[in-house]
């Protein structure tokens, strides 16, 4: 197993007309694009560093850092919109014919939108929570509300409350985790970007815009996903509760759902071995014609 993958040793960058995109690269084989979620102090490296060694044994892993989260340049605008733009630019800049994608939370939503717009570019798709629509649970979920409160007025206590909402096991919220998240989350440019997405004003404006628009909401477009899709979910997710999986599970034509017990929003971290096993089996499975 590749266990000596360092931050500096895997870090790469590529220039686009909108700014510099940074990413981590490890392994050889078919390209596997890993897209991180949102939230205070998040980066692609922090979301996936623990999984990189396992996946890099089979794939050329590309962990993209979205614009506006403190690693790649900030493209301006709404970070969720520029995230999709950055995936288009990144895949094209590297000359990739097609990719497998693992998307965590917001990264899963970005991956689905990319797969709908560029079906020929996505071979297989894995999401980790964060998509769909609340059916039985109130929305937004507890974790989103805590995220909004932190974004409005950042304090260490609010960061700790949000981190606890992300996991099933509170022991995972270590001082090291708190410190690295706090440092990144309170960087002025990163905080400004977060407020464009998660301040109460920005969130309210987004909801009103969706209500006033004739365009279908994202959850109503998932039937357009062509790629075989594995939906992964923590049974105890307090950010995007499990009932949110029902619409994507039913409407994505070739979707299957794997639920991890004793697991919050970070399935790839909190149920690391089980997550890696399920995802590798899915990505390496042969299709009906016997092709990998």
UniProtKB/TrEMBL annotation:
GO cellular component: membrane
GO molecular function, one term: hydrolase activity
The keyword Ligase appears for this protein: no
Pfam families according to UniProt: Abhydrolase_1 (PF00561)
Keyword line: Hydrolase
Record has Hydrolase as a keyword: yes
Domain AB hydrolase-1: 30-270
Protein name in the entry: Pimeloyl-ACP methyl ester carboxylesterase
